[in-house]
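Input sequence (132 aa), recorded before submission:
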Amino acid sequence: MNLDIEKHFSIEQFEAGQIDPELFSHAAHVYVAWLYINRFGADAALPRYDAALRRLTERLGVPEKYNATITGFLLTLIAERIDISETWPVFCKKNVDLIVDCRSLLASCYSEARLNSPEARQQFVQPDNLAV
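Predicted structure, token format:
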């Protein structure tokens, strides 16, 4: 887990689309979402992050990588677990599953068919496999 991620990403870069796609790992996605929630609060963070991510995938020519359900699911989990007094490294250590094993978290709540459906890609859909 790359904790130096703080040196490479900011909300301003993300919103301006100035993100190197080679460096924008899943951990970087989580970090930027963590930044948004810390700065704007959970309710305001989701629509703002979502809009910026949609723009970024369009700008990079990979709109098919965007999934509204995955975005909403992960931001909701981050918001539930965040303690704004914690640093990013502390958050990472407490929430390794969000960073390292995200697919298992998604699979515990969503079937592959539902998660990869056109509807789930465009708007948040409710889980269909609530194993948690």
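Checked by second reader. The mean pLDDT is 91.
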